Amino acid sequence: MLAKRIIPCLDIKDGRTVKGTNFVNLRDAGDPVALAAEYARQGADELVFLDITATVEKRKTLAALVHEVAHTINIPFTVGGGIRSTEDVSALLAAGADKISVNTAAFDNPGLVSDIARMAGSQCVVLAIDTRLEDDGEWYVYLQGGRKKTDVRCFDWARQAVDLGAGEILLTSMNHDGTKTGFALDITRRLSDALPVPVIASGGGGTMDHFADAFTKGAADAALAASVFHFGEISIPDLKAYLKEQGVEVRL
């Protein structure tokens, strides 16, 4: 059995790590380079770096900051935000990223997924989906950092993107983001059961039980969180030890 992964997420705005609730009310969470180094030291399996305002501000990801983080850590490193072309991808891979996360640009131009997969391999393409459960009981895709609703269902877009070459899905529930009430287990499980690629659960992790549930009930391959790690509420070594006790296979 493949080990389940614990992934801290650095949401970056103006060069600083920030964290909000339901994609709003952002507060400062510290220096991304120092946080990245600490997470690598604690035994995080991977690190995700998302320049959360790059798309809205119509600019590219902060490549210099990516370079600084990449040369501070020794774990796989995924970078996203403002990526619109294979040239953008090449620049970030050169700066030290191992994988590239695409969201709005991939939805607007699905061929981008195929282009990146052809250039760097499917294992390099992480499709980030921001999704919200609406009153009709369906999970819909949101774009531009959660600012723009679409009429496309999360499951349909995920399946299409995997067919195009996405090698992993980073699934963030906007309903759960920052609430610390637990991950969206139903939609996570649905994608995990149906798709041939790993699914990362994101949004809502607040206790060690929530992480265990993401793996056992949600069938996630990895669980991503931010504030519980940034503000010292859960340490990665303690979390992994707990998961091991619960029968979840993790790298200690």
Automatic annotation (TrEMBL):
<comment type="pathway">
    <text>Amino-acid biosynthesis; L-histidine biosynthesis; L-histidine from 5-phospho-alpha-D-ribose 1-diphosphate: step 5/9.</text>
</comment>
<feature type="active site">
    <location>
        <position position="130"/>
    </location>
</feature>
<dbReference type="InterPro" id="IPR004651">
    <property type="entry name" value="HisF"/>
</dbReference>
<dbReference type="InterPro" id="IPR006062">
    <property type="entry name" value="His_biosynth"/>
</dbReference>
<dbReference type="InterPro" id="IPR013785">
    <property type="entry name" value="Aldolase_TIM"/>
</dbReference>
<keyword id="KW-0963">Cytoplasm</keyword>
<comment type="function">
    <text>IGPS catalyzes the conversion of PRFAR and glutamine to IGP, AICAR and glutamate. The HisF subunit catalyzes the cyclization activity that produces IGP and AICAR from PRFAR using the ammonia provided by the HisH subunit.</text>
</comment>
<comment type="similarity">
    <text>Belongs to the HisA/HisF family.</text>
</comment>
<comment type="subunit">
    <text>Heterodimer of HisH and HisF.</text>
</comment>
<keyword id="KW-0456">Lyase</keyword>
<dbReference type="InterPro" id="IPR011060">
    <property type="entry name" value="RibuloseP-bd_barrel"/>
</dbReference>
<keyword id="KW-0368">Histidine biosynthesis</keyword>
<dbReference type="InterPro" id="IPR050064">
    <property type="entry name" value="IGPS_HisA/HisF"/>
</dbReference>
<protein>
    <recommendedName>
        <fullName>Imidazole glycerol phosphate synthase subunit HisF</fullName>
        <ecNumber>4.3.2.10</ecNumber>
    </recommendedName>
</protein>
<feature type="active site">
    <location>
        <position position="11"/>
    </location>
</feature>
<dbReference type="Pfam" id="PF00977">
    <property type="entry name" value="His_biosynth"/>
</dbReference>
<keyword id="KW-0028">Amino-acid biosynthesis</keyword>
